[in-house]
Design a protein that fits this description.
Elements lengths: L1 E6 L1 H4 L6 H8 L1 E5 L4 H9 L7 E5 L5 H7 L7 H13 L5 E8 L3 H4 L2 H18 L3 E6 L2 H6 L1 H4 L5 E3 L6 H9 L4 E5 L8 H9 L5 E3 L19 H14 L7 H16 L3
Parallel strand pairs: 1-2, 2-3, 3-4, 4-5, 5-6, 6-7, 7-8
Length: 267
């Protein structure tokens, strides 16, 4: 079973109108991300299919900057948090995310205080409703470690497009966090640290994702569910080179499918 631990179906439908048909044909189980109620409802409408789709929601950590740059185009932070709580109370969420921290440049760092408040609200929601927490982290691993005790209380924590090192990943696990590390097209684009982590982190902690449509393979205009086999092939090859027991594509796919089910199936 192919698994996409992080994707944006509502956004993917614009460049690829039949993306859902392709997902079903490939048999891709996925966890979707949404930042507006309309996006969430689009994903929720796809969730009753034979091939599972698990809808998640959050106020993205980049949202404060977007709101400052393009006022009126997105729900306010307060509106987003109200939607998050409503969906949680109604039992409609499969996960809380993507939340987290983005300190990639000065523009994002300017909203760090707001990101801190947003993270606290999302963490509280994940704990209140017993849901997985999906994290977006860019140049902010220190903030994750500062909150490791809180994260250890979560049902599970999925690091979307994992940006840390193998040592940092093992350290998070050592702190009692039920952490899973998700890898996408970066491993096929020679992102050296992502490749090293995909090779060396424990197989029972790995997930695959496309972040579709936002992380295209070289020569493509956007990423899509059809990229998952290529991602798996690269990860399996990396792990063979690292003398890992999960050395075949089929074996790795099976392990990752089990990881994905353990995170989302009982939500």
């Amino acid at each position: 079973m192919l698994c996409d631990a992080h994707c944006h179906p509502a956004d993917l439908a614009r460049p690829e109108p039949d993306a859902e048909g392709r997902r079903l044909a490939l048999g891709v189980s996925c966890a979707s991300s949404a930042t507006t109620l309309a996006e969430f409802e689009f994903c929720e409408a796809l969730s009753g299919k034979a091939v599972p789709l698990y809808p998640c929601f959050a106020v993205h950590p980049q949202m404060p900057r977007r709101l400052a740059e393009r006022p009126g185009e997105f729900p306010t932070v307060d509106e987003g948090l109200r939607i998050l709580d409503l969906l949680g109370r109604e039992g409609r969420l499969s996960g809380v995310g993507e939340t987290g921290f983005d300190l990639y440049d000065a523009g994002f760092r300017a909203s760090e205080a707001v990101q801190d408040l947003l993270f606290a609200e999302h963490l509280a929601a994940a704990l209140r409703y017993g849901l997985p927490l999906v994290l977006h982290v860019r140049r902010a691993m220190h903030k994750v470690f500062a909150r490791s005790r809180d994260l250890a209380r979560c049902r599970s924590v999925i690091f979307h497009s994992w940006s840390g090192t193998p040592g940092e990943g093992r350290s998070l696990l050592g702190r009692g966090i039920n952490a899973f590390f998700s890898f996408g097209t970066g491993v096929a684009l020679n992102h050296k640290e992502a490749m090293r982590c995909a090779a060396l982190l424990p197989a029972d902690r790995l997930l695959t994702e496309t972040d579709s449509p936002y992380q295209p393979l070289r020569g493509s205009a956007f990423s899509t569910y059809g990229d998952l086999p290529a991602i798996l092939e690269v990860m399996a090859a990396l792990r063979r080179n690292a003398e890992s027991p999960a050395e075949t594509v089929e074996g790795l796919e099976s392990v990752i499918a089990g990881n994905f089910r353990s995170v989302f199936e009982s939500c």
